[in-house]
Design goal:
Blueprint lengths: L10 H21 L4 H18 L9 H22 L17 H23 L3 H12 L4 H8 L3 H18 L4 H4 L3 H10 L2
Helix pairs in contact: 1-2, 1-3, 4-7, 5-7
Length: about 200
């Protein structure tokens, strides 16, 4: 039969600390607008963890401060956990659990094709240097210095061509305002996905 080889823990001292700081811990919880039952659970969990870890309060210079700080950390952990899983965000409303209908999927696909065609048309209407700068920068992933080496353009010219080209692409997408006002990453992803 297994016998616990740990030295006996002074539960009386732990209980005295519990009684000594209990009201103070409740006040801290009230100040943070916690329900009393939640506070009591947190306090009991805290002292249970002290017991399980066999915290030696003789080695701690300021045990009351240690207990209070530990309790505040438990409250912080509780708030973090409650924000991660808020009551408004139940699993039924999570976007990954909602399966779109075949009609919705088809409509989204057609809309994406239309957007890609519009973007391709806008790209084709760009000046040749703007098209080449965008292609080298965003499709091939070249740095400005690599583009300089390949084209012989100055760095400032490259920045100008990129800026002009992206502005013109966004200007053509007034039909899709959420893409036009967003970053250029989505635009270029759609554009170069078809190449």
């Amino acid at each position: 039969m297994y016998q616990d080889q740990r030295p006996s823990y002074d539960c009386e001292r732990l209980y005295r600390y519990f009684e000594e700081v209990y009201e103070q811990l409740l006040q801290i919880g009230r100040a943070r607008q916690l329900e009393e039952l939640v506070q009591k659970d947190l306090i009991h969990e805290l002292f249970l963890s002290f017991y399980e870890k066999q915290i030696d309060f003789d080695t701690i210079s300021y045990p009351n401060s240690y207990i209070i700080t530990s309790y505040k950390r438990k409250i912080i952990d509780l708030f973090r956990e409650s924000h991660r899983y808020s009551q408004d965000d139940n699993w039924m409303n999570h976007p990954l659990t909602l399966i779109p209908s075949p009609e919705t999927t088809l409509m989204e696909k057609e809309s994406m094709q239309e957007l890609t065609q519009l973007l391709r048309k806008a790209y084709d209407q760009l000046p040749e240097r703007c098209k080449r700068a965008i292609f080298l920068k965003y499709y091939k992933g070249l740095s400005v210095s690599a583009i300089q080496a390949e084209t012989g353009w100055s760095a400032q010219s490259i920045y100008n061509y990129l800026s002009i080209g992206l502005k013109q692409l966004k200007a053509e997408l007034v039909v899709h305002p959420n893409l036009a006002t967003g970053g250029s990453s989505m635009l270029l992803l759609l554009l170069f996905a078809t190449i």
